Every structure is written in structure tokens, then in C-alpha cells.
Task: structure prediction
Amino acid sequence: MEESRITDRPLAVTNSQKLTSTALIFLLIAAAAFYISAITPDSFGFYHDDSIYVATAKSLATGQGYRIISLPGEPTQTKSPPLHPFLLSLIWRVNPNFPANLWAMMLLSALAAAISLALIWRYLTAQAYASRLQALLIVALTALNWRTVILSSGIYSEMFYLAVSVAGLHLAEEYEKKQTRWATGTALGVILGLAFLARTSGITLLVAVAFYYLLRRQFKRALMPLATGASIALAWIGWGYFNRPTGGGVNASYYESYIKSYSEIIRDAQAQTGQSGFTILLSIIGKNLLTLLIASVPLICLGLPFDFAPRFGENLFTVILIALGVTLFLILAGLLRHIKAGFRLLHIYVILYFCLHLIWPYSGQDRFLMPLLPFLLLFLVTELERVAQLIRKGFKSSGLSYKAAALLMTAPLIALISFAAYNYGSGLYASLIPFKAKYAARAAEDTEAIQWIKEHTDPSDVLVCYRDPMYYLYTGRKATRSSPLIEGGNMVASQRSLEERAEVIFRIIQENGARYLVLTSSDLELESQADAYQKTYNMLLDRNSQVFVPVFKSTDGRCVIYRVHDS
Result:
């Protein structure tokens, strides 16, 4: 009998591995199919970054260099790294027919997402951060998060960065443990450099690997990958410095370096508040601690949108806040449990990534956290499994008090898991049906306006509109954004008076020699100061009717184009 058990154990392990591997394959295929089905060109331009990527991709593909050709003056793009636009430019070269090539560009994101999910599985299991079953659950939760669906079915860089960063983490730990050849170190260095070229926040991966090797006293082995990765990063930084645009303006944040933008943000905030730069920095960190760490981390893990309060009503608001607090506690506890077992590269990277974004004024957006989602889920799943083990142990105990404690823990655990499952399910449904309907409604407004612009304006006319790169790509008219990109990091933007805001809008028009102002009903949906900007435009149009003359109104009246007359 004993011999039989020993013989059966390897067979059982093998069957379990085959089962999880098969489940992973089906999951990856299903996720890719879902992302493809969620693709809709109507969503293009809504989040703005995607149209910037396509505009710069067109510039690369047509031999104009790395420029934002949608803007008047066509300034060099020295802010966003070029990896993603370069990949998109390859599609543009093959099919330069816009907007027909949008679908292929969106498909590229779906492919990057599927690859990143496979790499997450490989990294977590090969480096023993998670069991095969845990890793399968983490991959599933990452794949089925509605935010992942949006990023995987649009033209965004997050999925590319996630794939490259996970590959870098995995190869860095493999290179440290095994006596591999220098070629592996060079390949690691290239991946570290590509992570920085995918997103500027990829510098945290390079620094994390350097710190990890220093802790392991692997100075010689670190030299090759770090030198290669740093060389790629410095090449991009140097290129940006020597090609930096000499001009400025309200919307210079499109193309100037992050260091330049940051200094402008601090200076603008100081001018508005009279506070010191250090005080402004502390304010930024405090704001990001609240929005990025305390709020966004549990929100994205539970699949909740930021506007969850109106959806669930006041009666459930307190309960949901408690759920968010419990989730954040579990994630932090899971991170500490992992660190206690051994301070490793993944932990260093996650901490440095958060530290970088805590000091950046615009880090409150949930998109910044999506490249960390699988690792946040790792910490959450680890701690939930720990809670489940305690419950199981309590029920098995003979003591009545232990059973009662286990029973008390069971109900909240089931409620939390059910709540997350509901959010994930409703989010997936929304990404296929309601989201597409909203995108189509917004696109209908823009379509009428775009057609009018193409028929009634001169190709040399400049537009001021909220989705300016998209309007350029569809009309061929240069365009700039109708709201300023820098206002003290939005920390003190609400302190501006309506007159001050109106002056900024006039500056945008004058700096760009704009002839038409395009306003649609969905322009300010993503602005933190949307109401203030709406009031500003209402006041601006009412008080300056001789300057802004309406020349077009959409069928539903929700989109208006104004001719800007000299004044």
C-alpha cells in the first residue's frame, strides 16, 4: 500500500500540472478573443493618449521624425518615449489608410496583453512567488479586469510596458541565480532599456535591478545588463535634450521633458499659493497617497470604478468603503508577508514604482497602477489564502470559540469575494455593450463636426478642441487642446477665477493662431475640474459673442463649432 502511494504521487502532480497548463491556454485564448471583440474604432481619441501615439506614429512612418505633427509648429516629441509609436508606425507603413488602420493598431495591444499574461504566469511560477493555482487565479483576475480590457482593446502603452517589465523581472532573477553567459546579460540590459522606452516609469525597473544586484553583492554580473540598459536610457534622454523644442506655451507639456514639466508645475503652484517648493512637493505626495495608494489600489483590485457611489447608493456607501479598507489592508499584509519570507526583486520594483509616482502630480489616475495589477493581486490572493487557512483551521478545531471566530470570518470573506466577482462580471459586460454604445454616441458628434470641418475650412486653419490629435488625423487641420495641460498639477487649479481661466483659453487661441473652437458634450468628462472649465467656457462665449461666432451645430445640438474672429 505504501509503495502504491509513493508511485501515485508523481502522477498526481503531473496531472495537476497538465490541468493548470490546459486551463492557462484556454484562459489566454479566451482573453485574447474577448479583447478582440471589445475593439471598436469609435473609442479612438477619447482618452487622448492614443491619438498622440498615432500622430507620432504617422510622423515616424512618413519620414518626418519623432514629432507631434498634429500641433502647429510640429514640435519634436521629447516627453513620451518612442517604442510604442515606433511599433504603431510599422503598421502605418504597411497600411497608411487612416482610419482603416486603427483596427490593426488596436489588435497590437490585444496581442501585447496576451503575451504579458503568459509572462506573468511564467514569472510567478518559475520564480516561486506563487503556486501554479495561485498564478492561474492572478492571471485570470488580471485578464478579466475591465480596465485591462480597455487598455488591451485600445491604443495604449500599458500592456506593452507590462510585457517588457515582467520579462525584465524574470530574466534578471534568472541571470542572478544561474551562471549564464554574457549574452544573457546583454539581452537583459536591452529589455531594461526597452522598458524605459515603453514608458518613462520604466526607469524604476532599471533602478530596482541595480539595487537588487547590489544587495546580492553581484557587482560584476550586474555590470553588463546595467550598462546596456543605462546606455539605452541615456541615449533617449540625450536625444531629447539636444532636440528639445525652443518654444513654449500653455500646452507645451505635450512635448517638453518631464523634468521641464515638473518644474513648471511647481513654479505655477508656487505662484498661485505663495508656498515653498518643498511644501508643494509634500502636498503632491499627500494627494497621491490618498488617490493613488489608499483609493486606487483597492479600487482596481476589486474592479470598482471611481464613480461607484452613485451606482450603489448611499445605503451601501459605508459598506463599500469598509470593503476597500479591508482590501487595502490585505494587500499591504500580503506584501509584508512576502517581504518577510525574503526581500526580492519584485518587492523592490513595486516599492520604487510607487515612490516614483507619489511625487508626480498626475499620478492619481488608475492607469498608472495597471502595470502593477498582477503583483497587487498576488499580495491580495496570498493573504486571502492565509485567511481561508485560518477559517479552515478554526472549523477543524474542537474549541467552540475557534469555530465561532471562523464563522465570523467566513461571512465577510464570502461577501468580499462575491462583491469582487460582481464588479468583474458587470465590468466585462459593460466593456462589450454599454461602453461601445457610449463610444458610438460620442463618435457620432465628432463625425458630424469632422465632416463640416473638412468641407468648410481651409487646410491651413488651426482648431482648438479637446481631442485635438484625433481631429488632426481625421481632418488634416492642425489642432491644439482646448484646456491647459499644466495647472499646478491640478492641486490648486480650482483657486483660479473664471477670468483667469478665460485668459488661459485666450492664450491658447492666440499662441496657436486658432480659427475655430470645437466644443462637444463629452469634452470634459475626464477633467478633474470639469465643472469649472464648463463655467469658464459658458462665460467666455457669453461675454465674447463678437469673437466666438457659431457656424455649426450638430443634429442633436450637443456639438458646436465657433469661428474665432480677431479681437
Residues 142 and 373 are 7 Å apart (CA to CA).
